[in-house]
User: Which sequence fits this backbone?
C-alpha cells in the first residue's frame, strides 16, 4: 500500500466515522422504566422516528441528528443528574415532557447552566409538561413548549361543557403536584366564569404514579352524584383510573387531557364510546395527506405496542430543522431566535411559536372514542373521532401571557 | 352511608390481602428472627409467575402452580442462602435479604422488561357481582375475598389443629428444645420459609391483576407489610390479622373523607386556604399506616398482640 492510498483510506474512514457519529445531539430525558415508563417510551420512539426521517432527508444543514434516551424515573433530582450527564455527552438540545415537576427543575438548571457557560448553551424543548407558569411568570428564553398548556386545554373543555346543559355537577380529580394543582385551579376558575350554575362536587388530588387501585376514588365520584369528571391524569394514573371506572360500571363522562394515554381506551373498552373525551393537538383520524397517513402507519408498524400519539414530537423536531435552516446554524442561540415567531405548516394546520413566551399556538381538537374510525388505538378497533365542532382554531385557543422575556444578545 | 359501605368492602379485601402477605413474614420473623426484606419480592414473583403460566395455560392452573413455585424458590433461598448466612448472625441475614430484594427486582427487569406486564383477570370472573349505590362491584374482588378467607382458615387449621402446626409453634419459641426432642429444626425453618413465601406468592397471583404487575410492586408493597408486622406484634398471627384489617380499613376510610384540616380544626381558626388548612384527609391516606407505625413504637412497642418487645 502506497502512502497515498493509506492517506486516502484514512481520510475516507474519518468521513465515514463523522457521518456515523451524530453532529447534533438531543437528549430525551423522561421515564423509560417504572409505572410511567410506557408514556416515556411512546414519546421516545416518536422522536427516534422523526429523527430518522430528518436524517434520511439529508439532516439539518447537512448535519445528522441523534436522539438519545436518559431515564429520569419521573424524578426531578434524577433528571438533573441525567441532564448533567447529557450535557457532558455533548448534548445541546433537551426534550422532556412527562411531569411538570421535572420540567420546572430542568428549566431552572438550564437557566443556570446557560448563565454560567456562555458559548455552551443548551435549549429545552418541552413537548408535554403543560403547567401554564412555564410560559407565563416563570418563562425562560431557553425553554420552548410544543404542547398547549393546561389553561388552553381547559378552555377547550370548559367551552364544550358550557354548551352541555345536562352537566350540573362536576368532579375534579388529578395528580398531587404542580400540574394537577394547575389543572384543578384552571377548571375551578373557568367553570365559575362560563357556567356559574355548575357545582364542583369534588376536588381530589392523589399521589402521582403511586395509586394502584382507583376503586375508592371512583366510588367517591359516584357517591358525589357528579355528571362529569375533569382530569389531567396521564400515563398509568389515567389508565388505572379508567380501569376502576370500567369495573364500577358507572356511565359518567370523563373530560381529559390525556385520555389517549396508553391503555386507557382499552381499559374502558366500548364503555369509552362517547364517554371518554380528550383535548389534543392532533388525532390520527383527522383528514390528512397521504404522507401523514404513511407516517402514522410506519410508526405503528415499527412500534406495534404503541400508537401514533405524540404528534408534537414530530412537530418539535421538524420545527427545529426549519429554524436551524432559517438561521443557517445548528447552534442553540441562533436556533432559538429563529424559532421565535416562526410559523410552521404542520400536517393538520399552521403552528406558530409565539415569540412573547415561547408557547406554540396550534389548533386543538376535542375528540371522543368511536368504533367508526380509520385507526384504532391500543390494538383494538376503537379509536379517537373528532367531535362535531370539536376543532378549535389556534387563534381561538390562544391565551394571554404575563411573560416578561429576557433575551441574550442576538448574534 | 355509601362511603362507609364502600370503605368497609374495599378495606376488608385489602386488609385480607395484606394479611396474606404479612402472615408469612410474621412466621419467619418470629421463628428465625430474620426481618425478611425480600418478602415483598416473593409477592412480585407470584404475580409474574402467574402471568407467565396464565399465558401458557390458564389462570386456574396459575392460581395453584405459581404459589408452589414461589414457595420452592423460597425454600431454596433458605436452604442454600439464609442457612449459611445464619451462622454470621442477624445483621448478616438482614443484609442478605436486603441484597436479595434488589437481585430479584433486577432479574425480573431482565426477564420481563422495566414496565408493567399485561396481567389480566380471567374472563370467567370479569363481570359485576352486584351493584350498590350505583357502583358495580366486580366479581373478581369477591373471588379475592373467598381465596383470602380460605387461606385464613387453611393456615389456622395447619397451625392449630395438626401435629406439624404444633411443632412449628413450639419451634417458634423454643427451637433448641424442639431440636433436642429429635425434630429436624432446620427442615422446619425451611418449610416455614417456603410456606411464608408461597403465601406471599399467592397474594401476588390474586392481586397482581387488579393492581399493577411491574418491577416496582415489591418496593411499593414492602414497607406496608413491615408496618403490619410491627403494629400486629412480633410473633403474633392474630396481631398481624388485626393490624392488616385495621390498616386496610384506615386507608380506605381516609380516601373516602374529603374534609380538610380547616374543617376538622375549625375551632382553632385555621384558614382553609393556608398551607396546613388546605390538606385533606384523603390526601393523607398513604401516610397513615406509617403514622400508626411510629405511634405504636412509641406507645406500645410490643404491638397489638405481641408477646415480646422489639
Assistant:
Amino acid at each position: 500500500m502506497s502512502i497515498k492510498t493509506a492517506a486516502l483510506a484514512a481520510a475516507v474512514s474519518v468521513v465515514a466515522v463523522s457521518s456515523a457519529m451524530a453532529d447534533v445531539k438531543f437528549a430525551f430525558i423522561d421515564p423509560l422504566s417504572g409505572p410511567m415508563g410506557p408514556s416515556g417510551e411512546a414519546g421516545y420512539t416518536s422522536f427516534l422516528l422523526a429523527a430518522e426521517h430528518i436524517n434520511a432527508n439529508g439532516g439539518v444543514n447537512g448535519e445528522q441528528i441523534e436522539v438519545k434516551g436518559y431515564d429520569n424515573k419521573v424524578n426531578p433530582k434524577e433528571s438533573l443528574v441525567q441532564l448533567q450527564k447529557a450535557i457532558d455527552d455533548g448534548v445541546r438540545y433537551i426534550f422532556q415532557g412527562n411531569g411538570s415537576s421535572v420540567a420546572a427543575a430542568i428549566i431552572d438548571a438550564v437557566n443556570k447552566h446557560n448563565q454560567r457557560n456562555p458559548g455552551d448553551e443548551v435549549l429545552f424543548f418541552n413537548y408535554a409538561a403543560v403547567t401554564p407558569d412555564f410560559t407565563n411568570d416563570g418563562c425562560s428564553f431557553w425553554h420552548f413548549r410544543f404542547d398547549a398548556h393546561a389553561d388552553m386545554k381547559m378552555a377547550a373543555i370548559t367551552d364544550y361543557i358550557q354548551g352541555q346543559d345536562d352537566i350540573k355537577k362536576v368532579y375534579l380529580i388529578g395528580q398531587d403536584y404542580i400540574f394537577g394543582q394547575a389543572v384543578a385551579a384552571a377548571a375551578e376558575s373557568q367553570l365559575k366564569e362560563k357556567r356559574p350554575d355548575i357545582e364542583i362536587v369534588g376536588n381530589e388530588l392523589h399521589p402521582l404514579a403511586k395509586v394502584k387501585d382507583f376503586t375508592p376514588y371512583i366510588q367517591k365520584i359516584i357517591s358525589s352524584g357528579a355528571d362529569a369528571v375533569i382530569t389531567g391524569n396521564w400515563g398509568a394514573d389515567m389508565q388505572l383510573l379508567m380501569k376502576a371506572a370500567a369495573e364500577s360500571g358507572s356511565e359518567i363522562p370523563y373530560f381529559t387531557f390525556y385520555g389517549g394515554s396508553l391503555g386507557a381506551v382499552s381499559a374502558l373498552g366500548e364503555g369509552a364510546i362517547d364517554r371518554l373525551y380528550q383535548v389534543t393537538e392532533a388525532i390520527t383520524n383527522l383528514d390528512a395527506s397521504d404522507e401523514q397517513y404513511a407516517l402514522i402507519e410506519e410508526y405503528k408498524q415499527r412500534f406495534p405496542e404503541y400508537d401514533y400519539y405524540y404528534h408534537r414530537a414530530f412537530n418539535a423536531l421538524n420545527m427545529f430543522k426549519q429554524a436551524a435552516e432559517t438561521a443557517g446554524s445548528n447552534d442553540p442561540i441562533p436556533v432559538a431566535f429563529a424559532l421565535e415567531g416562526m410559523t410552521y405548516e404542520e400536517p393538520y394546520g399552521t403552528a406558530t411559536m409565539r415569540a412573547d413566551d415561547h408557547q406554540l399556538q396550534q389548533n386543538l381538537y376535542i375528540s371522543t372514542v368511536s368504533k367508526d374510525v380509520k385507526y384504532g388505538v391500543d390494538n383494538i378497533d376503537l379509536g379517537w373521532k373528532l367531535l362535531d365542532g370539536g376543532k378549535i382554531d389556534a387563534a381561538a385557543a390562544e391565551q394571554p401571557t404575563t411573560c416578561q422575556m429576557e433575551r441574550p444578545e442576538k448574534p | 352511608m355509601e362511603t362507609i359501605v364502600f370503605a368497609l368492602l374495599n378495606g376488608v379485601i385489602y386488609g385480607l390481602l395484606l394479611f396474606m402477605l404479612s402472615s408469612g413474614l410474621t412466621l419467619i420473623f418470629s421463628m428465625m428472627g430474620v426481618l425478611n426484606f425480600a418478602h415483598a419480592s416473593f409477592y412480585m414473583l407470584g404475580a409474574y409467575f402467574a402471568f407467565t403460566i396464565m399465558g401458557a395455560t390458564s389462570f386456574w392452573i396459575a392460581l395453584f402452580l405459581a404459589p408452589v413455585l414461589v414457595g420452592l424458590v423460597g425454600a431454596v433461598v433458605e436452604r442454600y442462602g439464609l442457612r449459611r448466612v445464619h451462622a454470621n448472625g442477624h445483621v448478616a441475614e438482614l443484609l442478605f435479604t436486603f441484597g436479595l430484594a434488589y437481585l430479584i427486582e433486577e432479574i425480573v427487569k431482565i426477564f420481563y422488561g422495566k414496565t408493567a406486564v399485561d396481567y389480566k383477570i380471567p374472563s370467567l370472573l370479569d363481570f359485576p357481582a352486584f351493584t350498590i349505590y350505583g357502583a358495580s362491584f366486580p366479581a373478581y374482588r369477591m373471588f379475592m375475598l373467598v381465596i383470602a378467607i380460605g387461606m385464613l382458615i387453611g393456615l389456622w387449621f395447619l397451625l392449630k389443629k395438626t401435629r406439624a402446626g404444633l411443632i412449628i409453634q413450639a419451634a417458634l419459641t423454643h427451637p433448641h428444645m424442639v431440636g433436642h426432642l429429635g425434630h429436624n429444626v432446620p427442615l422446619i425453618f425451611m418449610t416455614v420459609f417456603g410456606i411464608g413465601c408461597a403465601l406471599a406468592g399467592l397474594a401476588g397471583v390474586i392481586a397482581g391483576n387488579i393492581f399493577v404487575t411491574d418491577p416496582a410492586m415489591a418496593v411499593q408493597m414492602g414497607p406496608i407489610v413491615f408496618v403490619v408486622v410491627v403494629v400486629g406484634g412480633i410473633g403474633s398471627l392474630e396481631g398481624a390479622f388485626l393490624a392488616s384489617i385495621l390498616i386496610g380499613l384506615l386507608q380506605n376510610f381516609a380516601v373516602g373523607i374529603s374534609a380538610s384540616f380547616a374543617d376538622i380544626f375549625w375551632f382553632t381558626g385555621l384558614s382553609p386556604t393556608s398551607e396546613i388548612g388546605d390538606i385533606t384527609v384523603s390526601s393523607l391516606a398513604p401516610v397513615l399506616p406509617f403514622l400508626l407505625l411510629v405511634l405504636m413504637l412509641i406507645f406500645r412497642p410490643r404491638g397489638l398482640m405481641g408477646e415480646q418487645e422489639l
Remarks:
- Residues 172 and 184 of chain A are 6 Å apart (CA to CA).
